Every structure is written in C-alpha cells, then in structure tokens.
Amino acid sequence: MREKDRNALPDVETGAAAEMDEVMRKFDRESATRVWEGTPKRVVSVITALFSLYCIWSTLWSTADLPIRLSAFLGLIIIMGYLNYPVHKGHVTPNAMPWYDVALMVLGAGSFFYYCLNYKGLVMVITSAAKIDPWGESAVDGAWLYIVLGIVGILCLAELCRRCVGLPILFVVGALMIYTFASGQSLARVIYTLFYGTSGVMATPIQVCAKFIAVFIIFGSFLERTGISSFFIDLANCAAGSSSGGPAKVAVISSALCGMVSGSSVGNTVTTGSVTIPMMKKTGYKGEFAAAVEAAASTGGQIMPPIMGAAAFLMAEYMDTTYATVALKAILPALLYFTGIFLSVHLEAKRLGL
User: Fold this and answer.
1) 10 Å Cβ neighbour count for 303?
2) CA distances for 302 relative to 69, 191, 305, 322, 330, angstroms
3) Average pLDDT over residues 55-64
4) 230 near 343, Cβ under 8 Å?
5) 316 found inside a domain
6) What are phi and psi of 143, to 5 degrees?
7) Alpha-carbon distance 316 to 66, whole Å?
8) Contact, 211 vs 59, CB < 8 A?
9) When you count CB atoms within 10 A of the terminal residue's CB, does the N or C end of the chain come out lower?
10) In angstroms, rounded to a whole number, what is the distance separating the alpha carbons of residues 102 and 79?
11) Based on the domain organization, do 135 and 226 belong to the same domain?
C-alpha cells in the first residue's frame, strides 16, 4: 500500500466514526449527549470509569444495606446523567454546561447522598407513624426536611428521565400520581413511599439495574472495544457471503452476533448496517429492503442470549428465577426469529435472481 493511502486510513476511520455518532444522536435519544473535549472529556471519562468500578464493587463485594447501595447508585446516576444529557438534544455546545444543569445535578445527587450517608439515623423517622403528618404536633423533629429532600430528589430524577427517554413514561407516572392523590393519600406518605422505601424509585427495576444491568453493560463495552463487531461481520461473510443474496444474509448473521453483546438496537444497526447496507444495495437489493433487513435483524439482537435487553433481567427478578434460565428459554425464540428473517432475504434474493 502506498504511503499516501496508509496516511489516509485514519482520516477515513475518523470520518466513519463521526458519521456513526451523528446517526446515533439523530435516531437514538440515549445517544444525544453533550460534547466534551480535551480536559473536560478526560474528567468525565474518569468519573464514568469510577462509577463502573463502583458498580462492580457494589455487586460483588458490598455488604451495605440495600437502601444505602441503591441511593448511592442513583446519586451517581444523576451526576453522570446531567454531565452527559443536555436539556434538549439540540442544545449541545462543546464543553458547556448551563448553570441550571449544575444546580439540578447538585440538588438531585445531594438528596440521594444525604439519604445514603444518614440512612441509619433516618430509619426511625422513616418507620415512624408520625411521618404521615410531618408538620403535626406529633411529628419527629426535622421530618419536614426529609419531605423536601424527597421532593427535590424525585423531581431531579424525573427531569433526567425525560432527557434520556422522553415524556411518555412521565405521562404514565403523572397519571398514577393523580390517581394516588385522588385516593386520599397524603403528600408525606407518598414522598416517603417513593423516595425512602424500596417500592418507589428504588423498586425492582432500579435494584435489577444496580445489581445486573450496569455490570453486563460494562462487560459488553469491554468486549466491543476488542473489535469483536468487525470479527462478527467477517465471520458472517465467511459463512454466507458467497451464497445467493449473501450481503443480506451477512446482515442477519452479523446483527444476531453483535446483538449478543449489545443492548442497543440503534447501536447495533449503525455498527453492522454501515457495512452491510451498502453491500446489499450494490448486490441489487432496493435501499428500502436493505434498511428493513438491517433494522429487523438488529432489533432482534435484544432477544439473543447471553446479553439481552433490560426486560430479560426484570423477567428473571419478577419470576424469581435465575437470569441463566431466562437466557436459556430465549434461545429457541431468538433462533426462530433470525431464521425467519434469513429465509425472507433468501427468498427475495432468489426472486430477484441475485
């Protein structure tokens, strides 16, 4: 290879990575993050790495009470969330974070950290019947402060949720809150249940996320950094690249393999689709068909063991069974799903004479 061509390769790779990031920002809400450069980027990366180490330590070795671990986990989530997610995906300026985001981050994380550090002293207050009327004559001293902390923490967490996944989930929560207050529940009881108990924001989904999902995502990220996505595409090419309509079959197989280590259907589509969709179009498939094949195959990656979507972990928790059992039961449906797509592209290739 000529020296000029070798020097051009890094620029091509950098451009492709930038295009992939742009697509992710446009179509995947969770990828519409702030842009950090230089020293701020290194600081945010260190914070994220420390959080990853905390998740691993908390899962494997921590013996602290569950509310302590969960409140610390949520406090760290709020810090990283506001460091990475702007108020709107269009409000992105490199190395810029508005003052109100800093305030929300400090208030939200501070509420959960306060609960984490003072949990043992709050146990009596939390379990006291006086919590129902924190402003009454029988109220425990400072009970009103705990109500305010709970409100602040919940609102900051709700705003972060809106930035990450949008408004629909908040509409559902809002409807349930209206029903709760309409049934005669007091504000104090609601806040104590939502913020301080393990049946509110620290209920089963957060428990599963703290114990399993975060660690699986970390290990999956390590695996992706090894370049396994390229290996999967090459492996799929070796297996089906030379057959009738080979590129489409490569898309199906590589998406299934990449789905085994990726929790994002959009990320899977961008990773494998940037290679397979152009190949399919060159072979003779219509652009719409090529995109549909890649989208369907990449979406199915979330049900492909061993690492599936977050719902699989919740299923294991709610059914009181092991995650391995859920993964084992998912093998047959996943194989049938990808077999159906594989047969569809094969028949389309035969029809078009590709």
Assistant:
1) 18
2) 28, 35, 8, 18, 10
3) 88
4) no
5) yes
6) -60, -35
7) 19
8) yes
9) N
10) 9
11) no
- Say how far apart CA 98 and CA 281 lie, in whole Å: 44
Q: Could you tell me if 194 and 312 lie in one domain?
A: no
Cα–Cα distance for residue pair 301/321, rounded to 1 Å: 22
Statement: residue 111 has pLDDT above 90: yes
**Residue 207, in any domain of the structure:** no
106 or 256, greater pLDDT: 106
Place of tokens 């999956």: 220
Give the Cα separation of 325 and 327 in Å (integer). Answer: 5
How far is the C-alpha of 338 from the C-alpha of 344, rounded, in Å? 10
Angle in degrees, 0-180, between the axes of helices 99-117 and 66-84, rounded to the nearest 10: 170
Residue 49 CA, distance from chain mean position: 16
The residue assigned the tokens 């890649």 is 294
Structural domains in the chain (count): 3
Residue with tokens 């003779």: 284
Following DSSP, what letter does each residue of 107-152 receive, concatenated? HHHHHHHHHHHTHHHHHHHHH-GGGG-TTSTTPPTTHHHHHHHHHH
d(CA 306, CA 169): 28
What the block records as the tokens of 65 is 């009470």
At residue 120's C-alpha, the angle toward residues 81 and 215, to 5°, is 35
Region of 66 (left: φ > 0; alpha: ψ -120 to 50; beta: rest) is alpha
Shared domain check, 232 and 198: no
The alpha carbon torsion through 143, 145, 147, 149 (nearest 10 deg) reads: -140
Containing structural domain, residue 9: 1-31
pTM of the entire structure?
Answer: 0.71
Q: Please check whether residues 189 and 75 belong to one and the same domain.
A: yes
Q: Tell me which DSSP letter residue 63 carries.
A: -
- Residue 210: inside a domain, yes or no? no
Lowest-confidence range among 118-127, 191-200, 312-321, 344-353?
A: 118-127
Residues 51 and 19 in one domain: no
Has residue 6 got a pLDDT over 60? Answer: no
Q: Which regions of 196-353 does DSSP assign to beta strands (E)? A: none
| Cis, bond preceding 306 (omega within 30 deg of 0) | yes
Specify whether the CB–CB gap between 301 and 254 falls below 8 A: no
| Residue 349 and residue 244 in contact, taking contact as beta carbons nearer than 8 Å | yes
